[in-house]
Amino acid sequence: MAQYDYLIVGAGLYGSVMARELTDVGKKVLVIDKRPHIAGNVYTEEIEKIQVHKYGAHIFHTNNKQVWDYVNKFAEFNRFTNSPVANYKGELYSLPFNMYTFNKMWGVVTPKEAMEKIEEQKKEADIKEPHNLEEQAISLVGKDIYEKLIKGYTEKQWGRPCTELPAFIIKRLPVRLTFDNNYFNALYQGIPIGGYTKMVEKMLDGIEVRVKTDYLKNKQKLGELADKVIYTGPIDAYFDYKLGTLQYRSVRFETEVLDMPNYQGNAAVNYTDRETPWTRIIEHKWFEFGKDIEGNDIPKTVISREYSSEWKPGDEPYYPVNDEKNNNLYEKYHDLAETEKKVIFGGRLGEYKYYDMDAVIAAALDKVNIIST
Ligand code: UDP
Hints:
By secondary structure, the protein is α/β, with parallel strands linked by helices.
């Protein structure tokens, strides 16, 4: 008999939720991660009393009450509302696309005027049924906004022309004919006070975790420790890339501690022109402290510039490139995964899906329900 019921590969959100839930129904679980820490890409680390999102900005948002109640069992959330600012060659615009953005771009004042402007630009572009990100973007917000706020940013972020990217990526962003800079259409939104690492630590409370443990380098031996394996790493890496490599985008961060209390006045500023080499700058302190909270007297600030690049072996994969070619290859890996009876594949990398945090948690909770009934 194996020592554990489940070996969970990856201590990110998917793995940690699975570990918690399986433990709570009486299973014996071992969690391993190849990194020296838990929490996967939501990992936060304290620098100068500021929680730094080491693998990029994570703002928890959801419409799923069950998921919201779930995460609140492990952390207290602040009332953060994400409102990134776009910087296009020094011109500042509100995001997501809303009446403030339309007013600044075109001088329009009413929703009717904004709608007419978008319609006019859409008509000029003659798009009936959008087939790619460019056509989808122009259909939603018109050519001017596409050119200043979407094209450059997207091409830096994805390293591909907008005409070759799937339309769904831009549909993540709301378009509103109201004055509302809230980036997410989500009933519930916030950041765990004290950081995500603390939240995941609480999820994993009482569960055996081994960090710096690379499953793929020791698959056979580690696999023998448990009856079942839950694998949350890249699905193509699991199969040693034998059907080919799935494409991912990676991100590099340049993090600096600055000797000033306020660098950019906002958590996220997106650089939407093509020339600036970074996509955005995150000023971490604004995630945790409301700008108006008294006592926010930290004299320093921590910023991260994000640079996007094509993933290559040795890099961290962040974003699956869900275009047709990659999705087709993923389907083949998925078929192969179905034949691995002992292994469950899950999470952003295991399912090759541009999942948000809440969707990852919902998927893990669903999976636990299936396997423990
Ligand atoms: N996007 C854009 N301009 C912006 C912000 C986003 O064109 O200022 C596009 C870009 O293609 C990006 C997509 O919208 O990949 C989704 O943005 P989101 O903020 O959801 O990306 P994430 O936070 O997951 O990196």
